[in-house]
Amino acid sequence: MPVAESIREVTGLVPEALPEDVLRSPEPLVLRGVVGQWPMVRAARESAAAAIAYLKRFDHRGMPVVATVAPPEAAGRVFYAEDISGFNFRREKIPLAVALDTLRKYLDDPAPPSIYVASTTIDTFLPGFRDENAIDFGARDPLASIWIGNRSRIPTHQDVPDNLACVVAGRRRVTLFPPDQLENLYIGPLDHTPAGQAVSLVDFHAPDHARFPKFAEAMRHARGAVLQPGDAVLIPSMWWHHMEGLDGFNVLVNYWWRQVPAWMDTPMNALMLAIMCVRDLPPAERAIWKDVFDHYVFDYDEAGVAGHIPEAARRVLSSPLDEARVRHLRTLLLQRLNR
């Protein structure tokens, strides 16, 4: 595993009063021990069996969870098949208790199948868990998810929201890269992905530098940490992250939120539309549209239209947009896409 520069650490924080400068940090941070007093963490420090028993207390025993299952030879790497046409895992819908019991069964197995219950909404599947294991985000209303599995390797990917990822059982190694390392990480297909986000094709346990020569440059910008139960990492929007569960039983609780209003759409949709509509234009036309995007998006200044469009008539050229204008724009876009 390549060695990365250490992520900056902060100590002495409590989940009841996370500072704004932490939650808005443009740089990643490790928050050592921030959720160390959670009952879930205390159970995990006792044993994996105690942590499993604690989780079972909140199992709603209703609809099943989705478990990602890969054979022992995958060594925990949730990834593509060799030719990238498919994947090296299957997904099964099973009761949460069955997933937990299966993980317990394989605790001491040196080469178990990989079992990974990913991104499961806590309030839906573990009602009451957050009452005992809480973080105060103030006015924010983040999406809270839980990730449960054994030793796993989740390839490098990025998310639009900011992310506070709390390790509550087992140890995790996290490796982060700044957003500008896109070219050096050899990202796979955008529309055919293991779990919804495009991922790096580099195997961190055995990087093929002949096939991926720029990865060495990415590692010169990497930041990493090994997180113990009770630690958390703040991953700002669009930072690339590689997550690795190091023990036979691992649980992560994470919170996603954006620094913009909830009614704003994801920029990934705009990227997909630009690929569809702009990327393959003749070069001269593409250059024109690059100038148009700069004018209306990347370098936009409402003062540029203030002299010739009355304020009440600017519609989507008003900045910033509001919910009503975005709703109108979404309706117009859907009409155009569906014609």
UniProtKB/TrEMBL annotation:
Pfam families: Cupin_8. Gene3D superfamilies: Jelly Rolls. InterPro entries: Cupin_8 (IPR041667), JmjC_dom (IPR003347), RmlC-like_jellyroll (IPR014710). Residues 115-272 form the JmjC domain. This is Cupin. It comes from Pseudoxanthomonas daejeonensis.
